[in-house]
Amino acid sequence: MKNFRQTTDLIWNIADLLRGDYRPREYVDVILPLTVFYRLDLAMRPTRAAVRDVYNKYHGKLDGMDDLLKSAAGNSHVYNTSPFDWNKLLEAEDDIAHNFINYLNGYSPQVQDIIEKFDFRRQVNRLQASQLLVLVMREFKKVDLHPDRVSNLQMGYIFEELIRKFSEQYNETAGEHFTPREVIRLMVELLFNEGDPILTDPSIIRTFYDPACGTGGMLTEAKNHILNKHGEAKWPQLSKTVMLYGQELNPTAFAVAKSDLLLKGEEPDRIYYGNSFTDDGYKEKPDRLAPPFDYMLSNPPFGVSWKKVEWLIKREHNTMGENGRFSAGLPRINDGALLFLQHILSKRHRDDKPTRIAIIFNGSPLFTGDAGSGESEIRRWIIENDWLEGIVALPDQLFYNTGINTYIWVLTNQKSAARKGKIQLINAASFYQKMKKSLGSKRHEINSDQITTIAELYKAFTDGGDCRLYDNHFFGFRKVRIDRPLRLNFQASDERLARLEEERGFINLAKSKKKKDKALIAQEEAAGRALQVQIRAMLATLPDELIKDRAVFLQLLRQAAKAQGVKLTATISKAIVAALGEKDETAKMCMNKKGKPEPDNSLRDYEAIPLTPNAPAAAYTVGDSWLDEKVPLTEDVWSYFKREVRPHVDDAFIDTSFVDEKDSKVGKVGYEINFNRYFYEYTPPRPLAEIEADIRELEQDIMQLLSQIGTSGAAE
């Protein structure tokens, strides 16, 4: 971009003047606001005299002059009624601090909101006390930020590069503020269908929304795309029919976004300040045009914890159910990405009107979380409702603050006939060019031709190469718990009897639960020790041969206890079984009271069985004497078990209590999307002869080097 780096460097160098009086992390609090105010000051020059005339004529005579002043400013929300501009402030250096406050107070109500979010009034006196206010303001006059020469798009780049630089000074996450413009352009290309009437009919009203809008780049880029499709002649009309809505939590980013929209003639009230989770600025209201929204796009922060707002989100999830935003599930506390997606989907059209969504995630939302987890349930909700249209894997090192892999998810509530029931995956990881000069972690960029290629690949919807098409159920699986029976042998040997002394249930017999009465404590402990003596004596009467049937051992134990007058409580029996029993694959299965095998938890395993759509549920007879009743399973689970498990582990059985909460069938349903698996290309190893030849060559090289070392040593 022409003069982009030069302009950014000029502004960045101004920050160097603050060194010593300000800490590096405070530079942003001065430089960004002054950049905005100077640009606003330049933009107001053509209408400043007219605004002052109206103000002087009607001030104190009329209530509510905003409409008159706005009209005098060329129907702009940006105007200033004070007698000062940038040049006049510098003409009276002795009073510059007082006059600058007067200047700030003279701004229009919409700009006042920006000033408050920057919290800049408190900086004026500090700058003056450090004798920096005049110096910094004079330096800004060397920077050309006039809207006629620096477009809003260029200004967006400048703001974002400044934010990145400032963030790097104190390790802030710049990625929370903005997204590279080429990534936004790709998102916009994926967002629009070729036949979308908004691209052909400028009279159609369309709304755009970003719940984490940062400096507003995604929203403005989407609008620019539509404007450019129609040509400049229709821009005035389109400016009214393409409506931008956003919300931003960071006050600095919010102020930058709002100032940018003000200069573009947008309605600044459509950018809402606050946390989208706890202070939803766009709840459905009958007196508003939005929501629901026609288009939504966002780049929510990667891997950000929602611990601070946990109680509010859980309250909405637990009390509002499907009427709330987070009904599908809650992800783990350290990553709120899928909360953003649920929030966005809550703003979709619920009737026959289409909504299209493009959102950037890292890899975590694709596969984090096992079947039944919050993440998996959210993916299940999206896929089973057929909202996920496609995912595009982007190159790494695209973002300013991180080099990790990222993905664009494209969602819609109305898929085309060809796309219904299918999900498209595109591997665009190799579609990039290296930058001549990196920006932070950003070393790669996607050029215009590559954006076009990826978009065409997506719209072609053809399986093969870097594009894969799958049925929705392909990403689903049913996680089934496979158990094996517990098998124990028993022996009253000296070694095993000695283990009883280490069993907590046996040890606690000689411990009193009383806390205050010493006499009762001593009495209970004495009784416990006496019982321990009885148990030892009773166990000594058991036969010392190896018993491979727990039922037989327990019968012998009960007989011995009765003969010795020992009352076998559940605690005592458990301690004895634990001490005298050992696992033995050749022993008989341990059965529960219902005559079913008792599972060995140490042998428990799980099988992820591919999900078969509409698999019929039926009752299957397992055929073993210990499982001869009908077991409720689905056909796909039973067939898989017979084919993949039983031939290898003949005593395995399915835990029919491990049931999915939603469909009440055995096994929990899960969904995950593993890009590497779908696009993996096997590379066969080199022939052994070729590898052996390389090894011999290396051996010869090593021997030659060793001989040279020996020759050199002898010469010395």
Number of DSSP helical runs: 27
Structural class: alpha/beta
Low-confidence stretches: none
CATH class of the domain at 1-150: Mainly Alpha
What would the average pLDDT be, to the nearest integer? Answer: 88
Count of extended strands? 19
Ends apart, CA distance between termini: 64 Å
Neighbour order of strands in the largest sheet: 3-2-1-4-5-7-6-8-11
Helix content: 40-55%
Could you name the CATH topology of the domain at 1-150?
A: Ferritin
**What is Rg?**
36 Å
Give the overall shape.
elongated
The second-level CATH architecture of the domain at 1-150 is Up-down Bundle
Sheet having the most strands: 9 strands, mixed
Give a quick set of tags describing it.
alpha/beta; four-stranded antiparallel β-sheet; 716 residues; Ferritin
Can you walk through the features of this model?
Helices cover 43% and strands 14% of the residues. By secondary structure, the chain is of the alpha/beta class. A hairpin with a 2-residue loop joins β9 (433-439) and β10 (442-445). The protein starts with a helix and ends with a helix.
